[in-house]
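Section 5.1 Outputs to date
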Amino acid sequence: MTVEFRLLGEVEAAVDGTPVTIGFAQLRGLLGVLLVEANHVVSVDQLLDRAWRPHRLPRHPRGAVHQRIALVRKALAAVPGVAVTTHPAGYRLVVDPQLVDLHRFRALCEQARAGRQDDRAVDSFTRALGLWRGDPLAGVTDTDWVGSVRTTLLQQRHAVELDLTDIRLRLGQHAGLLAELADRVERHPLDERLAGQYLLALYRGGRQADALARYEQLRRDLADELGVSPSPPLRQLYQRILHAAPDLAGPAARTEPPATPVPRQLPAPPRLFTGRAAELARLDAILTEQPDTGGTVMISAIGGTGGIGKTWLALHWAHTRLHRFPDGQLHVDLRGFDPAGQPVPLVTAVRGFLDSLGVDPATIPVDPDAQVRLYRSLVAGKRMVIVLDNARDTDQVSPLLPGSPTCTVLVTSRRHLGGLVTAHGAHCVDLDVVSEREARDLLTRHLGHDRVAAEPEAVDELVACCAGLPLALGIVAARATRHPGFPLAVLADELRDRSGRLDALDPGDPRVTLRTVLSWSHHALSDAAGVAFGLLSLAPGPDIGLPAAAGLLGRPSGATRALLNELENACLLQQHTPGRYRMHDLVRLYATEYATQRHDPAERETALRRVLDFYLHTAHAADRLVDSRRPAVLLEARAPDANPHELPDMAAAMSWFETEHANLVAAQRAALDHGWDARVWQLAWVLTTFHARRGHRQDDLSAWRAAVDVAAHLPDLAAARAHRYLGRAQGELDRHEDASRHLHQSLALAERDRDTAEQALAHHQLARAWERREDNSRALEHATRALELCRALDRPAWEANALNGVGWHASRLGDYDTARAHCQAALTLHRRHDNPSGEADTLDSLGYIDHHTGHHDRAIDHYRQALTLFRRLGNTYESAATLDRLGHPYVALGRHELARVVWREAAELYEAHGRDSDAAQVQRRLESLDEHAGEGSR
């Protein structure tokens, strides 16, 4: 038996395709209200408002609702698996959401937008649109609510049609779209995004003249109807069509690059958001007041006290306007007022954006300024919303502002960021506490109209004590919801009797008594949850996963999950993504105070040791999965109950590192603060491979600086390695003097302890450091010494790398016979021991030697072999240098066009990496080629 409820057309129910008789229009309207709010309680007042107003209410309103609900129940009696249940607060329709076409439509759209495969997205969007059979909520009594919902749903359908059209155009389906687009353009003549799609489909269908004529018609219509000109993106498309730009050709005419992922970073919207009508209207006004509606810059510095609802407002507004941002959403919590750590560094925020925008980690520049430039280039011309949450000051925000006028930016901060107004023309929405009416509405939405109406004096007191702070109101509502049988007067008495001092943490509004609310909230917890509340404040980093929380608390995962759920239900903890939890920073401050009072220092230290050991031992196991060839380090025995998280393979290990990176960095900082020197060094060690593969050079530098700070208290081997890795990190950032100092210190420690392996590695890094300083004689000295030591160790893989090092530095000095002999020997060893990375390096060296000894064809062959391996390994950093060098033998053989091709690619990669001086040199070579070509033509 199949059951279906329909809202996307006539409101009706059907069993096995046969409609169920519902009755008159108002009865269908009541069913529509319950279906829209499926599985949620709808109060009697809400039913009256949605099914009757603005029409006259019946003489006995509540009795009329009860009588009509009874009729709805009778109509649905034959429908299996569905029931209308009665609650103190109202009525709820219990139904599987997949049986309701509206909820199935939304689920299919979310599925389409969450995926990265265009074919699947087309299927999901097409199935979603196939559920529509006309105007939604048809056949019911027209009320204000029905009109509002109908308008919203039609806008959502239109947005889906636009998204589907974009994908079909990417897939080359322009021919099949023309008739459909022509019809939709007639129905939406001033929709510029739709117009752009139609112009592109016309052009790709060989109708350039029709596309240009359609643009001229739209330009006149916009001027006549709205008094505006076409938006910049549409004007640019017109110019490209006019000049037949090659990049407008469809997929059939050229090879399409891989689709760029559309970021969907916004956290979930607040489900019970209430009020803020004036602020939402202000945000809408800012958007529409801009001269070009499709090219809007809107920076909203939403100021106010912690817990006042800044983030809720930003997220609610952004989620309800997603159709305006088809190119995606970026979000970062800048943690400007995090009591447990430092604000998010610029490099971390930008790196998160670049990862979400699909940038290959190997191509991300080292220089922070270059990363910012790359981020701005990627969002240029895109219609995106960027939410910069919890900003500390203007300096933290300014580098993250895109230069493109098509992006909308929302900034939230407790402070009034006047610098944004002065320097960037930001529009300000200053957020105050909610009004008394909005506070009551919020409680009513949580608790239901009947319960609130039954105790008006208690509600008045609760509203007054919460002082309009949404966070406090949410906590009060959560407590009352957990105890539906408690009179609200009991909660008001408990809140009134507890005084506190946390108000001082919110100097923007001294009326806020959040400490009082928090104190009775945690006192209502079970004993175990109360202990967990205090200990969780000790966790390093911005959030914590379930396995780490189990380590911190010293409990099994199941018991830990139950405690976290209890804290979440009390609004003392937020599960911001499945299995990951965080505290509001004010709650964390209170929890830290509570932990200090509740737990003795030894207990707090034991918990912190457990969570640090969880991170360290899990990271060590993950590092072994990522690179099993690295020398192992011996960890201290972990604290009891600090069981590491089991990871199955390298992909899972890298994913875990990505998720926990901020917490691992914070864990090292906590170990440093507590004087746990071995953990400081070991955390630096286990992070090194991940930092190298993901290009976190600044983080690597910070980690090894901390390790060197404690090196004096560690065994000499650990100290030698710490100085060597810090020297390497300094060298990667061209800090030559610091690099040399630490590398020589590492070498001195290794020589004193007669540690041959560590000496070899130190000499290898010194050779690279001197090469960066263009002193190839000293580089060769260190490379030669590294080779001698590696041969004594009988480690073929190390010896092969050292042989190539000697060959490379000898070639830089012009000793090509020595260079070739060493590199050939290195190539043999690399191939024998299956080391493609070392093989690629050596082939590149041989290409350089061949070119400089006049064997240009052989040089080209070696370079191309190296390039193949580098590309197979995803090493775009070395690919750029090989392409650069490959151009020279091409020029020597007169193959200027091939040189031009490889140098253009090298320049593009150099620019992507932020290697500006290298890119400039290649550009000069390209200009020189063009000059010679011009002279030849004369």
